[in-house]
Specification:
The chain has 284 residues and is α/β, with parallel strands linked by helices. It folds into two domains: 176 residues, HUPs (Rossmann fold, 3-Layer(aba) Sandwich); 92 residues, Pantoate-beta-alanine ligase, C-terminal domain (Pantoate--beta-alanine Ligase, Chain: A,domain 2, 2-Layer Sandwich). It is 37% helix and 19% strand. The strands form two sheets. A six-stranded parallel β-sheet has the order 1-4-3-2-5-6, with helices on both faces. α2 links the parallel β2 and β3. The chain starts with a strand and ends with a strand. The structure holds adenosine-5'-triphosphate (ATP), pantoate and beta-alanine. The site of pantoate has 10 residues, from β2 and α6. The site of beta-alanine (BAL) has 3 residues, from loops. One of its GO terms (biological process) is pantothenate biosynthetic process. It is an enzyme of class 6 (ligase). It catalyses: (R)-pantoate + beta-alanine + ATP = (R)-pantothenate + AMP + diphosphate + H(+). It is found in: Cytoplasm.
Amino acid sequence: MQTITRLAMLRNAVADLRDGGKTVALVPTMGALHEGHLTLVREAREKADHVVASIFVNPRQFGPKEDFGAYPRQLARDQALLEEEGVALLWAPERDEVYPEGYATNVSVTGISDRLCGADRPGHFDGVATVVLKLFNEVMPDMAFFGEKDWQQLAVIRRMARDLDLTRPHVDAIHGVAIVREADGLAMSSRNAYLSPEQREAAANLPRAIGSAVAALTGADRAAPALESLRGELLAGGFDSVDYAELRHGHTLSLLDRAETNARLFVAARIGGTRLIDNWPVER
Ligand SMILES: Nc1ncnc2c1ncn2[C@@H]1O[C@H](COP(=O)(O)OP(=O)(O)OP(=O)(O)O)[C@@H](O)[C@H]1O
Ligand SMILES: CC(C)(CO)[C@@H](O)C(=O)[O-]
Ligand code: BAL
């Protein structure tokens, strides 16, 4: 696996991969890789001839009081994991290569970016859309892979691809990969590493409480009582606060007051300084 840090070299390296009409898949990440990321890579390998992974802790998607500085960085370990998974090329640019002096462009997907995580993290999805569009333009992949753990992020990226007429990767080639979970149900996340052993144990209450809420929401006339008990269960189960616990349409992300086709439960909650997110489909 080649690691490339300069844009000038990336273009030639990707052109070499494409030689003979081979297809290229992109798996964007912020590093500190776990089985969730590796599952994205494996699905990408099944669908494309070559996989390009990227690692870039994107400053533009972190708020001023967020964990940009503390975000885990472990490039050597990540390189070994990606190599083992058969990734052809790792794009790992420095900050100045992505945002050189004078950089002034912002990509904003309005509407769906403003709710859920976008309401708690103002500007977050502008940062995501901006960097993802740059990654798409840099690598020009035939397809790209994102995790459903970050469901709203996937919706924002698909909206952007549709609105900006992206041809590479076009909207149908933006693949969502099901959430990979720990044995106790907690969605894997690089941020789980921030949890103390006691907090990690309490974190398992998130998927547990979501499971009960999904059962209560199915067939219920009103979503509100189940969402209220979900909040209560999290606060009683070691969480310090609940940023949101909402039933929304999975495609439009509009609020629902009862389950319908494509309904989805979205939750973000904090233990100490660590913010965890999860989402689950809800049947009618
Ligand atoms: N448990 C998971 N299951 C499926 N996909 C995942 C999972 N965790 C992360 N991903 C996906 O991997 C890609 C890179 O995510 P990222 O590097 O931000 O990791 P992360 O674990 O989500 O980190 P964090 O949430 O702490 O920022 C994203 O598309 C994300 O949705
Ligand atoms: C898509 C992404 C790599 C953009 O920085 C990031 O938001 C992530 O890791 O989910
Ligand atoms: N996994 C999404 C990236 C972020 O939380 O900043």
